Amino acid sequence: MNLPGQIAIQLRAVYFGGNWTAVNFKDSLKDVTWQQATTKVHSFNTIATLLFHTNYYMDAVTRVFNGKPIDSKDEYSFIHAPITTEEEWKELLDKTYTDVENFACIIEQLPESKLWETFVNEKYGNYYRNLTGIIEHCHYHLGQVVLIKKMVNTP
Fold first, then answer.
1. Which parts of 1-114 fold into alpha helices (H)?
2. Is the dihedral of CA 111, 56, 31, 25 positive or negative?
3. pTM summary value
4. First and final CA of the chain: distance in angstroms?
5. Fewest C-beta in 10 Å: which of 56, 104, 122, 153?
6. What is the pLDDT of residues 19-47, one digit of tens each?
C-alpha cells in the first residue's frame, strides 16, 4: 500500500477504530447524549464543540482538494450552531463520520508525489504535514473528549 493509503487508514482509525491507542471517536461517542455533548465542564470546550472543531479542519482541507481556496480561520473553528436536541447531535455525528470517510477516500486517491508539494502556501508546509497534522490534532482532541465524558458522567 502506498503512503496516501496508509494516511487514510490512520485517519479512519482515529474515528472508527483499529488504531494503536485502541480508542476512537465513534466508540467513545456512541453512548453520549446531546445533553452530555453540550455540558460545559470548568472552562473546557464541550464534547460537541471539540467534535465540530476537529471536523472544521478536515472540511477546510477537503475544500482545497476540491479546487477551492483555503478560507478557514482558527477563530471560527470552535463556533458552531447550538445543539439543543438529540437529532441535532446525531446530525453532527453523522456529518462528521461521512466527512471523515469522504476525506479518507480523497487521500487514498492522491499520488504519493502530491504529499511533498506545498499545501496552498509555503507557510503551511506540504500536504503530508497537513494530513498527518490533522490526524495528530484529532488524537489530541479525542483525549480531551474521553476525559470530559468521564467528568460529565461522574456524579
1. 3-16, 25-29, 34-37, 47-65, 86-108
2. positive
3. 0.94
4. 47
5. 122
6. 889 999 999 999 999 999 999 999 999 99
